Amino acid sequence: MVHPFGVLPEGYVDWAKNLGIVIKETWQEYLVSHGNVVEEMKQVFAELDKNKSGSLDYAEVTELAKRFFDGREPNEKRVMKIFQALDQNNDGQVTLDELLQGAQAMHRAFHGDAEEFGIRSH
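Request: output the structure for the sequence above.
Response:
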């Protein structure tokens, strides 16, 4: 079933629930819906930063993708896109600030401030 990002057909979640299927947020939907909740994002970052380096490496971002990719294993191409989108300074690490900025940019894009930041919302 194909539908616009972030929009499920009316009654879809209830229909799936009746069949024993739990609809989870994708990582994009999670960031969009929680992008302005800084404390929650800090908690997610701390959980993912297993080596407590203060930044997420590729493997830790892969865990982020797994966690929010509908419970499925994301392919390498998808993880690379996520990593590149979050690693704003291209240093091979994603800091908390980069994660928050990425989340907030997506949040703004889907909640009305898109034009102000040069992001087109669909």
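DSSP finds six helices and two strands in the chain.
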